[in-house]
Specification:
Layout lengths: L1 E9 L7 E10 L2 E7 H7 L4 E4 L4 E4 L1 E6 L19 H14 L3 H17 L2 E6 L10 H12 L2 E4 L9 H21 L4 E3 L1 E3 L7 H11 L5 E5 L3 H11 L3 H7 L8 E4 L5 H10 L2 E4 L1 H6 L7 H6 L4 E3 L8 H16 L6 H17 L17 E4 L12 H8 L5 E6 L2 E5 L2 E2 L4 H20 L10
Parallel strand pairs: 1-4, 1-5, 6-7, 7-8, 8-9, 10-11, 11-12, 12-13, 13-14
Antiparallel strand pairs: 1-2, 2-3, 5-15, 15-16, 16-17, 17-18
Helix pairs in contact: 3-4, 3-15, 5-6, 8-9, 12-13
C-alpha cells in the first residue's frame, strides 16, 4: 500500500476537486482513498509514504492516438527526402521507415515510446502500428513491452493495400489474432482495436475482409480525411466522401476512432454524431504536415466524443493541448474560443474513450478508480486552485515536469528515476536498433553520434 501525499491534489472529481495539502492511498491497482495529508497519515501509518514534495498530484494522462513505429525517427534524415506535399511525407518518410522496421526495431520503438510516456506522465495509449518489414507477431511484441514498462495500451495494426495483397492480408490477420489474444487473456491493461490506414490506401475488397475478420468484436481505429488525398480518392473512385464510405462498410460506431477528420463536411459530421463514432484531434502533427486544422469547434458543438492525441509528434500531452488551443484560435481568428473544447478533450473525453476499452475508471482520483497518478514538479507563483488549474497547466506546465508516475498501482518512476528498469541498458538497445534502421534507409552504417 502506498500513501502519495504532501502535494496540491487535483482529483478531476466534481465532488471533491482540490485539496491544498492532500494525497491518495493506493491499495493494489486501485485508489482506496483521497484526503488531506494529515488525515491520511494518521489513518494509514503503515503505508509506504511517497513524498510529493509540494508538487501537484493529479491523474495521469491518456494519449488517444499515437504511433509506436515512429519512435526511432527522432533526428533522422533520409537521403533524397524533400517532401513538398502530404503524400510525399507518407511515401518518402513514414512508409519508407515502416518497410524497414523488423521485429527488433518494433520492440525498440515500443520501449522508447513507453519510457518517454512514463517520463511525461502518460500511462494509457491508443497506438496505431505499422511495420511492413515484418508484420506477424508485432502486436504481441508491443504488448510484451507494454507489460514490461507498465503502460496501459490499446493496440491495432495499420491495414493497407499500399504494399500489395500479401502484406495486406498479413495486417488483417495480425489484427484478428491480437483481438483473439486479448479476448482470451482478459488482461485489464491490454485492449485491441482493428486498425486501418487512410481510406485512399484501402480498397472496398479490403474493407470487406477487415469487417469479416473483425466480426463485430471491437471497434476500428482509422485515419480519415487527414489530407485531401483521402477526399479526392473517395469521390473519384467510389462516388462518395470518406465518412460516407465508412458508413457503407459498417466501420462507424461507438467503439470506432477516426483520427484527424480535418476535411469533413457538415453531412459527414452528422454521420459521425448519429453513429456515436469518436474523433481524435492531433494538432501538432496536422500543423507539421501542413494538412489543415481539425474542425474541433463544430465537432464539439455537435456532441461528438472528441479526444486528443499526438500522432507521435510528441509524447507530451500538455504540449499537445497548448497547440490545440492556439490552433483553434488561429483558425477561427478569435482569441476567445477553444478553451472548454480542448480542456475537455484531454481531461474528460480521453477518459471516456478509455472507458470504451478498459474496465477501470481512468482520468480521476477517487476511491475505486484506477491508481494512475502522477506528481508534477510545479511550484506556482500565482494563486492556484481547482478553479484555475487548467490555466496553470496550459501556460505553466510541461510533461517533463513529471517527477513521479504510478500506473495501475505500480510505481514506474520516482523522483525522475525509473523504477525496476535499467534505463542505460534500454537506451543502448534502442540506439543499436535505430542505427540498423537508419543504415537500412540510407544504405550505410551509422555511428552513435549519427555519422553515416
Amino acid at each position: 500500500m502506498y500513501l502519495l501525499a504532501n502535494g496540491r491534489l487535483i482529483t478531476r472529481d466534481p465532488s471533491n476537486g482540490y485539496i491544498k495539502d492532500g494525497g491518495v492511498v493506493i491499495d493494489g491497482t486501485k485508489i482506496k482513498e483521497v484526503g488531506s495529508t494529515a488525515d491520511l497519515k494518521a489513518k494509514y501509518p503503515n503505508a509506504e509514504f511517497i513524498d510529493a514534495k509540494g508538487g501537484v498530484i493529479m491523474p495521469a494522462f491518456i494519449n488517444a492516438h499515437t504511433h509506436i513505429y515512429s519512435a526511432l525517427a527522432r533526428g533522422l534524415s533520409i537521403k533524397s527526402n524533400n517532401a513538398d506535399n502530404f503524400y510525399d511525407v507518407l511515401d518518402k518518410q513514414w512508409w519508407a521507415i515502416d518497410r524497414k522496421l523488423y521485429m527488433g526495431g518494433t520492440r525498440a520503438s515500443a520501449n522508447a515510446l513507453y519510457i518517454d510516456c512514463i517520463k511525461q506522465g502518460v500511462t494509457t495509449v491508443f497506438d496505431h502500428h505499422a511495420s511492413y518489414g515484418e508484420i506477424p507477431g508485432t502486436l504481441h511484441t508491443i504488448a510484451e513491452s507494454a507489460k514490461k514498462f507498465g503502460i496501459r495500451s490499446c493496440l491495432c495494426y495499420e491495414v493497407s493495400d499500399r504494399d500489395g495483397e500479401e502484406k495486406c492480408l498479413q495486417g488483417i490477420k495480425e489484427n484478428a489474432d491480437f483481438i483473439t489474444e486479448c479476448e482470451k487473456n482478459k488482461d485489464p491493461m491490454l485492449a485491441a482495436m482493428f486498425g486501418g490506414h487512410a481510406l485512399f490506401t484501402i480498397s472496398d475488397k479490403t474493407f470487406e475482409r477487415m469487417v469479416e475478420a473483425n466480426n463485430g468484436r471491437t471497434g476500428y481505429h482509422i485515419h480519415v480525411s487527414e489530407g485531401w488525398n483521402d477526399v479526392y480518392d473517395s469521390i473519384q473512385n467510389y462516388g462518395r466522401r470518406p465518412v460516407e464510405r465508412l458508413r457503407d462498410h459498417g466501420i462507424l460506431g461507438e467503439k470506432t476512432i477516426l483520427g484527424h477528420c480535418i476535411h469533413v463536411t457538415d453531412k459527414e459530421i452528422d454521420l459521425i454524431r448519429e453513429t456515436g463514432t469518436m474523433v481524435v484531434n492531433n494538432p501538432e502533427s496536422n500543423m507539421g504536415n501542413a494538412v489543415g486544422t481539425c474542425p474541433v469547434l463544430p465537432l464539439y458543438k455537435n456532441g461528438i466524443l472528441l479526444g486528443l492525441g499526438t500522432d507521435a509528434y510528441t509524447n507530451d500531452m500538455l504540449e499537445s493541448i497548448k497547440v490545440a488551443l492556439i490552433a483553434q484560435r488561429q483558425n477561427a481568428e478569435l482569441p476567445n474560443v477553444g478553451w472548454c473544447e480542448v480542456t475537455d478533450m484531454l481531461f474528460k473525453n480521453n477518459a471516456k474513450i478509455g472507458a470504451k476499452y478498459f474496465p477501470d475508471e481512468l482520468g480521476v482520483l477517487k476511491a475505486g478508480a484506477a491508481a494512475d497518478v502522477i506528481v508534477m514538479d510545479y511550484k506556482p507563483f500565482t494563486p492556484f486552485s481547482d478553479a484555475n488549474i487548467d490555466g496553470h497547466m496550459i501556460f505553466g506546465m510541461t510533461g517533463r515536469q513529471c517527477m513521479t508516475t504510478i500506473a495501475n498501482g505500480k510505481l514506474l518512476m520516482k523522483d525522475r528515476e525509473l523504477v525496476g528498469i535499467d534505463e542505460e541498458a534500454e537506451n543502448a538497445y534502442i540506439l543499436e536498433e535505430s542505427k540498423k534502421l537508419w543504415g537500412d534507409l540510407n544504405g550505410c552504417k551509422y555511428s552513435a553520434d549519427g555519422e553515416c
